[in-house]
Amino acid sequence: MEIKPGETGSMKLAIGEETIINHNRPALYQVVTSGGSVIEVELPGGVDFKIKNEGDIASIKLILFDAPSGPTEIV
């Protein structure tokens, strides 16, 4: 799957296999379970997101953000 910043993509995972997702941009992952629960994880660019589907994950939605430009205030 190839998506660009500002775009959204979704994917299904193979059952019983660990999947490692890594992007060079900040990303929001929304994991939807078969029971309807939604788990959101926001990660900075360059961080691995590891997930293993044992049959209870319906899909993953991925939203990429633009990388910040210029100085960023750290609080």
Let me know the average pLDDT. 84
Structural class based on helices, strands and sheet pairing: mainly beta
Radius of gyration: 14 Å
* Percent of sequence in beta strands: 35-45%
* Silhouette: elongated
* Main sheet makeup: 4 strands, antiparallel
- Taken in chain order, the helices and strands follow as EEEEEE
Helix content: under 10%
What does this entry show, briefly?
This protein has 75 residues and is mostly beta strands. The chain has strands at 8-11, 18-21, 27-33, 38-43, 49-52, 57-64. It contains no helices and 6 strands.
Task: Give the helix/strand layout.
Elements: E1 8-11, E2 18-21, E3 27-33, E4 38-43, E5 49-52, E6 57-64
Antiparallel strand pairs: 1-6, 2-5, 3-4, 3-6
Give a description of the structure.
The protein has no helices and 6 strands. By secondary structure, it is mainly beta. The chain has one domain. It has a 4-stranded antiparallel beta sheet, with no helix packed on it. The mean pLDDT is 84.
Which terms would index this structure?
4-stranded antiparallel sheet, mainly beta, elongated, two-stranded antiparallel ribbon, 75 residues
